[in-house]
Amino acid sequence: MITAMAPDALLQVDDLAVRFHGDAGTVAALNGVSFTVRPGETVALVGESGSGKSVTSLAIMRLTPPPPGCRVTGRVMLRGAAGEALDLLALPAEAMRSLRGSRIAMIFQEPMTSLNPVLTIGDQIAEAIAVHRGGARAAVLDAAAELLDLVGIPEPRARLSAYPHHLSGGMRQRVMIAIALSCDPALLIADEPTTALDVTVQAQILDLLRRLQQRTGMAVIFITHNLGVVAEIADRVMVMYAGRVVEQAPRRALFRSPLMPYTAGLLRSVPRLQVTAARVALEAIPGNVPDPTDLPPGCAFAPRCGHVQVGRCDAAMPALEVAEPDHLVRCLRWRDLASGTPG
Amino acid sequence: MTEATDIAATVARPSRARSRALARFVRHRLALFGLAAIVVLVLLCAAGPYLWPYNDLRINMRQRFAEPLLAGLHVFGTDELGRDMLARLMMAGRVSLTVGFAAMAISTLVGILVGTLAGYFGGMIGTALMRFVDAVLCFPSIFLLLALAAFVQPTLLSITLVIAATAWMEVARVVEAQIRSLRERDFALASEALGASDAHIMFRELLPNAIAPIVVASTLNVARAILLEAYVSYLGYGIQPPVPSWGNMLNNAQEYLVTAPWLALLPGLLITLAVTGFNFVGDGLRDALDPRLDIS
Description:
The complex is a heterodimer of chains A (343) and B (296).
Chain A: E1 11-22, E2 25-37, E3 42-46, H1 53-61, E4 70-79, E5 85-87, H2 93-99, E6 104-107, H3 121-132, H4 137-150, H5 156-159, H6 169-181, E7 187-191, H7 199-216, E8 219-224, H8 227-233, E9 236-241, E10 244-250, H9 251-256, H10 261-268, E11 321-324, E12 327-329, H11 334-339
Helix pairs in contact in A: 3-4, 3-6, 4-6, 6-7
Chain B: H1 2-10, H2 13-27, H3 29-51, H4 85-121, H5 123-138, H6 141-151, H7 156-165, H8 168-183, H9 186-193, H10 198-206, H11 211-234, H12 246-253, H13 262-289
Helix pairs in contact in B: 2-13, 3-4, 3-13, 4-5, 4-7, 4-8, 4-11, 5-8, 8-11, 9-10, 11-12, 11-13, 12-13
């Protein structure tokens, strides 16, 4: 087992696996996921529902259900505030708790339900500050108002005494972001933060996140299934399928030359606004995500892949290969496909 | 900015939601009656003895069995020792209401604690706690109460504790169910992701969301406690004479049921008034605080 941590990494995940044990059998929600996040960069985790994106973030935060229902293996290293390497999965519960919110923060998909309905906005931000920093009530409320101002909420003072149901979805997500930022985290995990919002508000929130990131220098893990959002915000992209990373590349490389047929399929199935002579039906990837209790022995995407070679693709799980520096792909045929050899 | 106007348009809502609940409570005629009865009883028992010229313990053998309304200032008559009935009823009310409220407070606290811990941690701890609750619920509470009362020296404190010991399970079950479902909500996870401690999440984040059913259950618990105190005192295990309680006044009165029926009727009436009052208020609160009714 590797014990070192790359010197320039803020977060280093090695061979992370999460298994859920239930009545219906064991579900391997996550398998051998490895990646690093450097300070200040934005890494997007992309995939369909059930591909393991959210489980990855929960495992990093150590918020998965307790064993025996769920087992997490592998290694998650985080650079501490003093530059030390912290093994998150081996940390005592109390030490982990003090990192949550202060070193790694998280925002969730549903701003409607992620705020406590019976506490005021001010109370909730103040509590987030008080948990890690403490301080006099008045000073904490000042800091809370400043945060609301920072995330672009008008009249922050007056909003402190508002309840969540007084605010629109976009406003609530801004409050969630303010809470997440309250203790200056080095890493922000954003789990589909714009999915529940309508498109114009989505753009505002993305813009806000980008501005805040420039200002604070935090790294962001951005979980989404929306490739438009990825194109907008990510430095690097990891595509996940059935609990594994199937392609990992810088944003430009991924959008220009996707190597994994699944990624290519995802890109083709994004609707485009353009005037074309013929009306072209929007492409879709045929079939469904495989049943996680019964994954095929080979490439998990093989049953849906247009380039599948029977006897080869479905025999054994392909390894994650380095196609170019910084561009990893999990496909036996990426060379054939890249050179245009017909399948 | 559209969101700004959004906020402006909805700023008035909390008071409206609160006043809607209030309006529903006020529409509940019986609840209003119950509340009035409780307020009158509490004021009477708290302030009455200071204003009333008669002492509840002063014996006057020349004025025994004075009938209500016929004996001058003894508007509610006198008992077998010539003690003024109104003075005794007011002092007894102090005892009964004190036992009622104190037992409610203790049982609610215990119930909240047990229910919150069981609902939050679940698993082994939750199962053990809730099976214990079920086990205690299996005993008919009257017999449990009498068995306990037979072993302890009856004082105001011990009676209160004994009654509380038979009344906390209801609250525990209500709270456990609430916390168990609230625990799965996103804001609980969000709070955990912020590094909040278990105690913080339980008592600061989840419990305030469960206040409405707790308030209803505790209101009904006051009525129960008053009734239980009357039972045990009537059976002679409760508050001991000469300190009056509505229950032991009833006990005392049964010998004179035919000759001086007001001795039994008056404390009986007050017990009924207090118990139904709290029950009606509890029903009213249940309707008023039910958020599902906000839709209509």
